Amino acid sequence: MTDVNQFRKTRYDIDPIYIKRWSPRSFSNQKVSEEVLSSVFEAARWAPSAANVQPWRFVFASSEQDKEIFLSFIDEGNVVWCKNAPVLIAVISKMEEERFGGNNPAHAFDTGTAWGFLSLEAARKGLITHAMGGFNKEKAKEALSIPDGYQVHAIVALGYQGEKSSLEEAYQKREVPSPRNEVETFVSEGVFRENM
Ligand SMILES: Cc1cc2nc3c(=O)[nH]c(=O)nc-3n(C[C@H](O)[C@H](O)[C@H](O)COP(=O)(O)O)c2cc1C
């Protein structure tokens, strides 16, 4: 397991889980139990959402057969490493809602929160997650039988961290927790600051 504290320093007091969560690409072949997987989805369940409509949907693959289907629409540059993940999860949102009279303007915002909760619970359980936007959305909708009115946002690889040496060399170099911009660069008081 990588010691994230070597790479990530916080300036203000936060729970360590926020920096513990990062996106490695090396997965071990350790399976994820049904119970642990259920806990990860349970965390997503408790995300807040506009009017509490809970627009998030998840489709996961853990059998070799289902994973093959996911790999068929994921970009090659991601397949090379995510094929070793024991679980692949499609993050989907329901775009329409009767109580909004059609489009739910918060479907993507709320589904992003749910995936955030999921990834933090996964980190708490000693798992790693890695989200991917690099996949063919049309193919994904078809392959997973996702109806119109739903949007696929990301595919998330989930599992236990493996050895860096299992990755191709180019990916080994990138296998380090990334830094972040300082708080002042994205927060301003009163009005929006142009140079934020
Ligand atoms: C919506 C989304 C799409 C992403 N797409 C990819 C991707 O296609 N391939 C990849 O290797 N990483 C992808 N990432 C991972 C990001 O590059 C990573 O989260 C970011 O660099 C921050 O690093 P950290 O998650 O390790 O803190 C994606 C992340 C998100 C949230």
From TrEMBL:
Similarity remark: Belongs to the nitroreductase family.
Superkingdom per UniProt: Bacteria
Record's keyword terms, sorted: Oxidoreductase
Pfam families: Nitroreductase
Name of the featured protein: Malonic semialdehyde reductase
InterPro entries: Nitroreductase, Nitroreductase-like
Domain Nitroreductase: 20-70, 74-160
Gene Ontology molecular function, alphabetical: oxidoreductase activity
